[in-house]
Amino acid sequence: MTYVYDFTESHRLENPTLLLGNKGANLAGMASLGLPVPPGFILTTQACQEYEKNQKLSDTLKSEVLAHLEKLGKQLGRSFNQAENPLLVSVRSGASVSMPGMMETLLNVGLTPDTLPGFSDFLGQSQAALDCYRRFLQMYGHIVLGLSSEIFQNQLQSKLEQTKTSHEKDLSEEHLKSLILVYENLIQTSLGLPLSTNPYDHLWGSIEAVFKSWNSPRAKTYRQLQGISDTLGTAITIQAMVFGNLDKKSASGVAFTRNPSTGEKELFGEYLVKAQGEDVVAGTHTPDSLNDGPKSLATLMPDTYQHLQKIGGLLEKHYKDMQDLEFTIEKGHLWMLQTRTGKRSAKASVRIAVEMVEEKLLTPAEALLKINPDDLERLLLPCLDSNVSASAFVEGFAGAPGAATGSIVFTAEDAVNAQAEGKAVILVRPETNADDVHGIWAAAGVLTQRGGTTSHAAVVARGMGKPCIVGASALEILSETTLRVGSVLLQEGNIITLDGNTGKAYEGDLPKAQPHLGSEINTALKWADQYRHLGVRANAETRQDVLKALELGAEGIGLCRTEHMFFDPKSLRAFQQMILSKTPKERRSAIEALLPLQKESFKDLFEVLDAKPVTIRFLDPPLHEFLPTSESDLAELARTLDIPLAELKQRHKSLQELNPMLGHRGCRLAATIPALYEMQARAIFYAAADVQKKGIKVNLELMVPLIVTSQEMSYIKTLIDTAHTDIEKETGMTLPYTYGCMIETPRAALRSDDIAQTADFFSFGTNDLTQLVYGLSRDDFAPFWPHYAEKELFPKNPFMHLDEQGVGDLIHKAVKKGRTTSPTLKIGICGEHGGDPTSIHFFHKAGLDYVSCSPYRVLSARLAAAQAALMASK
Amino acid sequence: MTYVYDFTESHRLENPTLLLGNKGANLAGMASLGLPVPPGFILTTQACQEYEKNQKLSDTLKSEVLAHLEKLGKQLGRSFNQAENPLLVSVRSGASVSMPGMMETLLNVGLTPDTLPGFSDFLGQSQAALDCYRRFLQMYGHIVLGLSSEIFQNQLQSKLEQTKTSHEKDLSEEHLKSLILVYENLIQTSLGLPLSTNPYDHLWGSIEAVFKSWNSPRAKTYRQLQGISDTLGTAITIQAMVFGNLDKKSASGVAFTRNPSTGEKELFGEYLVKAQGEDVVAGTHTPDSLNDGPKSLATLMPDTYQHLQKIGGLLEKHYKDMQDLEFTIEKGHLWMLQTRTGKRSAKASVRIAVEMVEEKLLTPAEALLKINPDDLERLLLPCLDSNVSASAFVEGFAGAPGAATGSIVFTAEDAVNAQAEGKAVILVRPETNADDVHGIWAAAGVLTQRGGTTSHAAVVARGMGKPCIVGASALEILSETTLRVGSVLLQEGNIITLDGNTGKAYEGDLPKAQPHLGSEINTALKWADQYRHLGVRANAETRQDVLKALELGAEGIGLCRTEHMFFDPKSLRAFQQMILSKTPKERRSAIEALLPLQKESFKDLFEVLDAKPVTIRFLDPPLHEFLPTSESDLAELARTLDIPLAELKQRHKSLQELNPMLGHRGCRLAATIPALYEMQARAIFYAAADVQKKGIKVNLELMVPLIVTSQEMSYIKTLIDTAHTDIEKETGMTLPYTYGCMIETPRAALRSDDIAQTADFFSFGTNDLTQLVYGLSRDDFAPFWPHYAEKELFPKNPFMHLDEQGVGDLIHKAVKKGRTTSPTLKIGICGEHGGDPTSIHFFHKAGLDYVSCSPYRVLSARLAAAQAALMASK
Questions:
Q1: Which residues of B touch A430 (CB under 8 A)?
Q2: What pLDDT, in 10s, does the model give residues B62-72?
Q3: A356 CB contacts (<8 Å, ≥6 apart)?
Q4: Over the Cα atoms of chain A, what is R_g?
Q5: Which residues contact A41 (CB under 8 A, 6 or more apart)?
Q6: 0.90 surpassed by complex ipTM
Q7: What is the mean pLDDT of residues B681-691?
Q8: In whole angstroms, what is the distance from residue B499 CA to residue B493 CA?
Q9: A353: closest CA among A521, A173, A229, A169?
Q10: Does any CB of chain B come closer than 8 Å to the CB of residue A774?
Q11: Could A794 and B711 be called an inter-chain contact, meaning their C-beta atoms sit closer than 8 Å?
C-alpha cells in the first residue's frame, strides 16, 4: 500500500478525494493539468487511519515522506535542512469532507536557527525572516507541543507595550530576536529540554499533530453533528512554501473566472503587490482590481495576467464550472494555490450555466444541474440592496422571500383601507388566519409574532409573492396601535422594511434592488421542460395569480382553493349568513345567494385557463374561520345581519373547537351541510357550460379534501353526479369532469386501494399529511423547533422538506396501492412541498405525475423536476 | 335439484339455514328432534332465486309443493280444498339472515267460501271463522293483489261506526258477512272479475307474493344498509295452522327455559287459555304465569306443563343455550311454534353459562363464549332501577356507565368543597380538561355539554368508575349557577340523577339497583384466565385505583399517567411555579420542589403493586393544562405566586396553542425542559430504591409519550440513564428497569424498526393514533358524528372500536417491523380500546402481549381476551 502521493500522481487513483482529501485532490488535479502549483505531496487518509491504530508514524510512512521530500527539493533546487536556500514547507490537514477550521495546519516547517540566515537571504528581508521564525515557534509550541497559545500571545503583547509598538509587523529585528529568545525559553521550560534544531523532528511532530487533530474534541463534535464518519481520517498536504511578499514582482491575489454578481465572462478579483495571501483577505490593506485601473495586474504585469486568464479557462474546462482561484506571484512566477467552485449570485448562476452551454463547455443537462432551484425563486422578488447596512429591530423566520416597505397596520381591515388610499402597509399580527387573507392581499408584507415557515401567514404570503416574516417572538403587540421589541416602541403608521429572505425587519425605508429576469432563464427552463417527467402546476384561484402562474410556465392549476373565493366582502357576508342561519330554509337561501358569486369566479378562471386542467377543491376550512373574532367586528356583523349580538356570540362560541385542525372541516362539512358542496358543484358546472358555449374548453378535476374513507368518496360523488346530470340536461351541454381527492390523512393513504375505486386522481396534501404523521401542528411548532433543531431530534424540518422516511413511506404505499386498484390513476401533490426542490426529487422517484406549488415557485419547480429526472437517469 | 323440503328432511342438508332460512331451519330442527311442531315444508331460497330469474313459478316447484301439501294433509287427516275439516296453512317468508318485518307472511290460506263452513264447524265458532275469512281477504287483497290496505281499513272503520261497535272482534256474524261482501266487491272491482274460489290459486298467489317481497324497495334498502347480498333470496315456510282459541283445553304462550332476569333454572313465561299467539303479546288480555298461582299452566294442565318443561330441556341440550319458546295448545295437544336463543340480563348471562357447565351442557370454553364481556362491566356499576319510569330533561352520549344522584355544581372547586362537606354532587361543565380532574374525582357523576364518548370527561370518568354523560348539546350553561335545557331551568344545588348507561339525565333522585357480583363471575373468569394469551393490566396511578384494579384481576399497571400525580393542590402549585418561572434557576428550584412529592407518590404505588410490573409514562399534557382558565382563578394564582396578574395573563396567553393536541406536549417537553423528565426519572429511581430496601421488588417500565423519531428515544434514554447511574451509585442499590415508548403517532408506527433499536417495549396509544390516522379530534367529533353515523361514512365509531382497516393496518405493520428489529420486544396497548371487547379480538390477532384498560373494564377484558383466543383457535 502506498501512503504518500505526489500531486502529479493523483490520476492513478480512482477516488482521489477519499484518499487525498478535498484540498489535496484539488491541488493534485491542478498539477495533473500541468498548471504551476508549488510542488508537494500528500499523505493519504489511510496513513491517518494507520496512525490512529498504532499511535505512531510507521517507518514505511516516514521513508516514503523522506523520498518525496528529497524529490521535491530537487524540483526546486532547494533542500530541507540546508543552510543555503533552504526548503520550507507547509503541513496542511484536509479531509475528504469539508470540516472548515476544525483541524490544524503548520506553515514554514524547515525554518530553524540554522536555516534562518539562508531564508533571510532568499527573502532579502531579515526582519520578515525573523517574524516568520517567531510565528513558526508560536505555532509549533501551541499545536505540536500543546502549550497554550495565550502564553505566547501574552509575551508578544508585553513586548509590544514595552517597545511602544502598535503592530507586531513593525517590531524591529532587535525586538524580534529577544522575543524569539523568550519563546525558546518558554518551550524549554515546558519540555524540560531545548527545542530540537533538527527540522526533521519538526516535520514528524507537525505530521503527528495534524493527524491527532482529526480526533480533537471539537472535530469529533463537529463530525457527530454533521453525521460524518469518525473512521475517515484526514489527509496531509506537504507543499513547498512560496512567497508573494519578496519584491515588486511578487504578489498575492484571489480571482473568479467570471463575475460572481453578473455572471459576465471576465476575470474578476483583487490582488496586492508584495504581500502574502492572508493580507489580501485580512482587510488591513486595500487590494487592487485585477483588470481595472492603472494599478491593476493587467496593467502592471500583463503577461502574468494573461497567464492567469488562460489558467482560469483551463480550470473551467476541466471542472466544468466557474472557479474561485487563489494565487501567489513569487518574483514574477505565477503559482496557483487553490481552485474551487465559485459562489455566485442567483442571476450569475443562470447566466453562467447558459453561456457555458453556448461555449460548449457544458451540455444543457449539465448546465441545468449547476443551477440552484431556490435561486430562481429569489430572482423573481425584490430584495434589499446589498450595499446598504442597517441593523434590524427584530428577527424572525424567513416566511416568504422578497423585501417590502410600508407603514405599520395591525388589522386586515386597516390594511384594506390603506390600500384603497394607495398606501403601502405592513400588516403586523400575532398570527394570521383565513379571516386575514384580504389583509395580506392588501398589504405589501406581513410580520407575525407567532408561527413557523409553513404557518398560515407564510404559506399565504408565499402564494401571493409577498415578503413575510413569521415567529418574531421578541415582538409584543401592546395594543391595537402599538408594538414593542425590547426598548423599541413602534406605532401604527411608522414605516418599517421587511427582508423576507433573512427574516429581519428594519425601521424606516431601506433601498431595494429590483428583479430583472434575463433571457437566459427562459433558455434554461426550456431545456428543463424537455428533461422533466413531472408536470408542474400552480396553486392559485384568482385571475391575477393564475395569469402569473401561466406566465411562469404552469401547465394548469393543481389546487384551486374555493374558500378563497369567499373572501371578497360580498361573498363573505353571504357565507356568514349561511353559517348563522337558524332554519334549513334560511340556510338554503343563503347558499343559493352564493351560487351566482361562485359561478362568476369559476367562469373567470376557466376563461383564463383556456382548456388547461384545473383541480378545484371543495370547501375545506372550518366554518368558524369565516367569522370575525374581535369584539368590534362581531358587533358590526350582528348589526349587518340583524342578529342579536348575544346570539351571534353564542353561535360563534359553539363553533369553537379544541383542535380545529382535526375538527369539523373538509368533506366533513358535506356530511352536515350537503347543500354546500352541491352548490359548489352546480356553480362549477354552470360556469363550465357558459364558458364552453363560447368555444373555450374546460378541463375539470373536482377534488374533495380530508377524505378518510371510501364511503365519504361515494357519498360526495352522488351529490356531485346529481348536480351534473341536472345541469347537463338543463344546459344541453356535455360537461366532462374527473373526480378525485386529497390524500392528506394517514388513513386515506393506508386505504388508497379502496379510495381509488371511486377516484380518477389523487393529490397528496403533504402539509396536513405531515402534521398528522408527526402529530405536530405547523402553527404551534415554532416555539420548540429551535430546541429540536439544536438537538437534531428530527432528521430535518418536515414542513420545509418532505420527510422521506415517514411521510414518504406512506406516500410510496399509497401510490402503490392506489395504482393497483386503478393503473391509470393520476397522482399529484399540492402541499407546500410541491415547490421544494429536495422534495421534488422525492416526488419524481415516487412516480407522481405532477407537482403543484405557489405561482412564484413554478420556475424553480420546473428546474428541480428536470434535475430530478436527470439525476435519476444517471 | 330439490326445491321443497319437509321439516323432517333438514338433516340431509349441510347448511340448512342458507337454504331454508332462519325460521324454517329452526322449525325443521325442532321437528328433527321429534318435537311436536305443526307439520309443514319449506320452499328453498334457491326456489326464490329461480323465481327471480324466470318471474314465474316453475312446474317442477309447483308439483313438489302439491306433493308435500298432500302428504301434510294425510298426516293431519285434513285436506286442502275439502269442505269438511279443511286444511289451512300459513305461508311465511324467512331469509337466512334476519330481516325483521321486511317481507310478507299470509295466514289461513285455504279458507274459501267453500271451506268456510267446515272450518266453522272445526272451530265451533262461526263468528270467529267469519272473522278469519275477513282477515284473509284483507291480507290477500293487499299483499297478493296489491290493493292499498287503507281501502279495506276504511270499510272496516265505517262498518264499526255504522254498527256502533267498538272493536272488530265484537262485530256480529251479520255485520261480518256484509263486510265480507264489501271486501269481495272491492277485489272484483279492482281485478275486473271475482276472486277465484280455488284455494290453489290463493296458494300460488301467496307464494309469488312472498318471493316478490324479497325485492320490495324497503327490503332492498334494508339489505343495502346492512350489507346483505341481494342474491340470497328468501325461503318460504308452509305450515299447517293450529288454533289455541278452540276451547278450554286450548291456549297459547311464551316461555323461557330459565329466568332471564336471575338466570335461575325454571320455566319462566306466560300463557292465555283460549287464545291465539298474538293475544298473549298484544297486551289486550292479562296472561297468566306458567307455574305460579291457581290459574297457572302447571296447575290447570300439569301434563302439558311437564311436556313443555321436557321439551325446553331437550332444546337447551340441542342448542346449548337458554331458549325463548312460543307454543300453542290445540284441544290439549301441545304444538311448538318457535324456539330461539333467549335474551337475558347481564347477571343471568353469567349464572346460566356457569350452571350449564355444572350441568355438563357446556364445556367451560363454550360457556365463556356465551357471555357478553360488556355485561361484566355493567355488573360492577349501580344502575337505575328498571321499575321506575321518569322522563329525562336532557340526553347526551353515554360517556361512562353507572348511575348517580347529586346536587349540581358548576366548577371542580365547588365539587371538592361539597365532597369535603360530605355532599354528593354532579359536576356540570361545558367540557373538562386536566384541571377538572380533582373535581371529577370529588363528584358522584359528570355531565358535559360538549365532547364524545372518548372525550376527556368520558375517559377520566370511566377510569374512575363514575357515571358520565357527555355531549348533551341541548344543555346551555347560562352562568356560574344556572343551566337551561329548553324551558327547564336548573340552579346550583338542584338534585339530578344521571344514567350513564343510556346517556339520560333526570331531575330529582331516582332509585337505583345496587350491583351484586355472584360467585359465578369468579368461576367464569378463572376459566377465562386459563384460555387467554393476552395479559390484562390496568391504567391507574392512585393507590385506590390500583387496589381496585388488582382486586379485579389486573396483572400490573399498563399506564401510570404521572401528570395525574400533579393534581393535588400542593403539587399543582409547585408545577405552576415551574411553568411560570422566569429564570433557569427559578425553574430548576421549582422542579426540585416537585421531586419529593413525585417520589412519595411512586413509593405508594410500588408498595401496593408488590413486584407486579408498572409502566410509568413521563409527563404528557401541554403545560397550559396546568394553569387555570377563569379570570378569578388566574387572579388567585397571581396572588399566591406573587406575580403581577398582567404578566401571568401574558404568559398564559403565550402558552395557548391553535391545536394543542398537535402541540408542545409529550416528549417534546423533554426537548425544551429536560430537567422535568430528569426529575421524574430521579423520583422513580429514588422511590424504587426506598421500596426495595424494604424487601419489596419493583418491576419498572419507563415509557415516553408522543415519540416521532428514534433520535427522540435516544436523547431521552441518555437523560434517564444519567439519573439511573447517579442514583444506583448514591443508594448502592441495583435498580433494574426497561425502557419503551407509546406508539401513538403514525410516524412512530411507520418507523417502529428504528425505534425498536432503543426500546424494550412498545405500548400503542390507540386514542391518539386514531385521532391522527383519521385527522379527527375525539373532543370535536361529537357535533358531526350523528351525521356520520346516519350516513354510515365511517365503518364504525373509531374511538369506540378499533378501526382495523386503517389504524389496525398501521398496528400490524408496526408490530412486524418492531419485532424484526427486536424479536423479544414486548408490545401492549393502553388506549381506550384496550377495554373494548371487539378491539381486544383484534389485539389478540395482531400478536400483542397485553392490553391495559380502566380498572372497571378489567373483568370484561379478561373475558374478551379468552374469547379471542378461543375463537382464533377454532
A1: none
A2: 999 999 999 99
A3: A316, A320, A321, A362, A367, A370
A4: 34
A5: A4, A5, A6, A7, A65, A68, A69, A72, A237, A238, A239
A6: no
A7: 98
A8: 19
A9: A521
A10: yes
A11: yes
